[in-house]
Amino acid sequence: MQTWQKLLIIAALATIVVVASTLVYFNYFAKRRLIISTTTSLYDTGLLDAIEKNYEATHAVDINIISAGTGIAIQHAQNGDADVILVHSPSMEKTFLEQGYGVNRKIIAYNFFTIVGPDADPATIFGKNATEVLKSIVAYGESLEDQSGQTKVWVSRGDNSGTHSKEQSLWKAAGYNYTLISEEPWYASVGSGMGDTLNIANQKSAYTLSDIGTYLKFWNNDIISLSALLTEEESLLNIYSAMAVNQTLHSQINYVDAMNFIQYLVSDETQQLIENYGKAEYGQSFFYGAVQPLKENALQPIVSWIQSAAFFDGSECPPQYRNGYPELYP
Amino acid sequence: MVDILGGIMKALQLIISGDPTLYGIVYRSLFFSGTAVILAVLWGTPIAMLIALRDFRGKTIIKGFFNSLIGIPTVVLGLVLYLVFSKGGPLGFLGLLYTPAAIILGEAVLVTPILISIATAAIEAVDPEIMNLAKTLGASESQASITVLKEALNGVLLSNIASFNRAIAELGVALLVGGNIAGLTDILTTAISRYTQRGELDLAIALGIILIVIVFLINMIIITARKAKMLFTLGRSPQ
Question: What percent of chain A has pLDDT over 90?
Fold first, then answer.
C-alpha cells in the first residue's frame, strides 16, 4: 500500500472517531438536550440565563440556547433544529402555526418597544405618538442637506427579527410603503442584532426602534447615550410567545422536555421571576408576565391590547394548533 | 461613552483571576481548532502529495481550485454546512448540528484548501532528483515519497500553522453550525460577538486580547521557524 493511501485511511478513521465520540457522548453520557431558539432580546438582557439556571437546577436537562432573532428562530424550527422557540412576532407566529411547524403556543410575557434617539432630538419626536414620530423622522430625513446616504436618521435591524417586523408594521400603520422607505438615503438597514443596532444608532446619532430590555441594559451600562423618546403606547406593545416544535414533522424533536419547559415558563414562580428580572439592578422591570392578566381576563387595557395584537381567532392558540396539555388552556 | 481603558483593566483582571467562563472558551477554541487542523493534516497531506508528485491532466485546474477556495468567506461555508448538518439536510440523521463535532469538521473543511495549497507548493519545491536518488538507492515508491515529505517538512509545518491560524480566527462556521451555545460550542470569536451584542464588553475585550495574543504567537512561530530553518532540518543526514 502506498503512503498516501495509508494516510487517507488514518484520516478517515480519525474523522469517524470524532463523529462517533460525539454521538456516544451526547446519547449516553450527557444530559438530555433541549435546544431553544430564541429572539435576541430575551437572551441579551440575561433573562434566559436566569431561567436556564433555575430550570437546570430542578430538571435533568441541559438547556442549549441559540440566540438569533425571530426570523432565524422560526427557520431553525422549520428545519427541526430546535425544540422550543421563543419569539415576538404574532404575524410570523400565525403563519408558523398554520403551516403546522409549531404547536401549543403560549403568550409568556410582554413589554413595550421604545423609539430611541439622540438627546437633542433634531427631528422633534418627543411627546408624539408612533405615527407622528415616523412622519417627523421622514420630514427630518428629507430636509437634510446631505442626501448622499452618508447621514443616517433612522437605523433598522433589517434582519427579519420580531423587532424588525414591528418596525415594518409601524411604518405601514403610519401610511408609508415600507419598501420605499427602506430605500431612502437617510435610512440604514444594518442586518444585525439589537445590541449592534443600538451601537450603530448611537454612533450615528440616529433614531431606532428597540426593545426596552436591551435598551435599558445598554443605557445603564453607559454603552449608549440615546434617550427613550417614546414608550408605552399600544402600538409599541411587544408580546413574547413560546411554541413547541411539532414532533410529527421531525422525529428527533425533544417534545416532552419542550412541553415541560413551556409549562415551567407559564408557572407562577417563573412568571414572578420574569417580572422581577432587572428590577434590582436597573430599577425597572424588563418584562411583565402575561399569563396572570390573560387568565383573569382582567379589565386592564393591557389585556385587550394583547388580545387584539396577538390572539388568533380569539385565542392565544386555537384548538387545531394544540397537541395535548389541556391544562395550558383552561 | 464606552470606557475603553476601564474595559481593558477589567478584562485584564478577568484574565489574571482565571475566570472559569473565560478559560472554558479559550480551552474550547484551542481544542476545536487543534483537532480540526489534525483532521485537515491527515486528509490534506496525502492529497497534497498526490498533486505534487504525480503528473496528470488537469493538475493546474485542481491546484487553482484549492487556491481559490482559500479565500472562501467562512460564513458562506458555515451556511452550506448548516444546511448539510441540519435535521432536514443530508447528514441531519447524525444529529451533529450544534455539537463540537460540527465545528471541528467544519473548521477542518475550511482549512483544508489552505493546507493543501501550501503543502503542495512545499513538496513541489523539493528537488525532483531527491526522489530519483532515493529510488536508485533502493527505496520503494512509498519510502521515496516519505523522503520527499521530510525534505519539505518546513513548508508542510508552515501549512499546518497557517491552517490553525485560520481556524482559530474564523467566526462564520462556528457560529452557524455550533450555534454559539454557552459552555458547549462557544469559542473565542463567537463569544466575542455574543458579549459585544449583549453589551458585556469586559469579557469581550478579555477574549479579544487572548485571541490576538494567540494569533500573534502563531505568527511569531512562523517567522522564527522560517529564520531558523535549521531547527527543522536537524537530525537529517547532510546532502
Answer: 57
Indicate yes or no: CB of B49 within 8 angstroms of CB of A3: yes
Residue B223 within a domain: yes
Mean pLDDT of A152-160: 92
Distance CA B83, CA A51 (A): 30
Question: Is the full-model pTM beyond 0.95?
Answer: no
Query: In this predicted model, what pLDDT tens digit does every residue of A296-324 receive, in sequence order?
Result: 877 778 888 898 888 898 889 988 998 88
* Closest CB from A21, A66, A222 relative to B98: A66
- A275: its cell numbers: 417580572
Q: Are residues A95 and A158 in the same domain?
A: no
Domain endpoint, select from A192, A215, A236 = A236
CB atoms B39 and A44 under 8 Å:
no
Asked if A18 reaches chain B (Cβ–Cβ under 8 Å), the answer is yes
CA-based nearest residue in chain B for residue A6:
B46
> Residue B93's closest chain A neighbor by CA?
A252
For the ranges B26-40, B202-216, B225-239, the maximum mean pLDDT occurs at: B26-40
| Residue A305 in domain | yes
CATH code, A172: 3.40.190.10
Cα–Cα distance for residue pair A106/A291, rounded to 1 Å:
8
Which chain A residues are Cβ-neighbours of B89 within 8 angstroms?
A: 79
For residue range B97-150, what is the model confidence (pLDDT) as tens digits? 999 999 999 999 999 999 999 999 999 988 888 888 888 888 888 888 888 888
d(CA A293, CA A266): 12
A16 touches chain B (CB under 8 A): no
The DSSP element (H or E) to which A119 belongs, if any, is none
The count of other CB atoms within 10 Å of the CB of residue A54 is 14
A 67-86: CB under 8 A from B: 67, 78-81
pLDDT at A206: 95
Q: Which residue of B has its CA nearest to A251?
A: B87
Rounded distance between C-alpha atoms, residue B64 and residue B116, angstroms:
11
- Three-class DSSP labels, B53-91: HCCCCCHHHHHHHHHHHCCCCHHHHHHHHHHHHCCCCCC
* B195 assigned to some structural domain: yes
Among all chains, which residue has been given the C-alpha cell 450603530? A200
Per the model's pLDDT, the better-predicted residue between A95 and B88 turns out to be A95
Predicted local confidence at residue B75, as pLDDT: 92
Note whether residue A1 is domain-resident: no
Model confidence over A216-258: pLDDT tens digits?
Answer: 989 988 889 999 998 878 889 999 999 999 988 887 889 999 9
> Is A242 found in the same domain as A107?
yes
- Is residue A26 one of the residues assigned to a domain? yes
pLDDT value, residue B239? 41
Q: In b/e form, how buried is each residue of B181-204, taking b as 16+ CB within 10 angstroms?
A: bbebbbbbbbbbbbbbbbbbbbbb
CB-CB: which of B1, B86, B201 is closest to A81? B86
| A15 touches B105 (CB < 8 A) | yes
Distance CA A150, CA A142 (A): 13
How far apart are the CA of A96 and the nearest CA of chain B, in angstroms?
17
User: Which domain covers residue A172, as residue numbers?
Assistant: 112-236
Question: Is residue B239 in a domain?
Answer: no
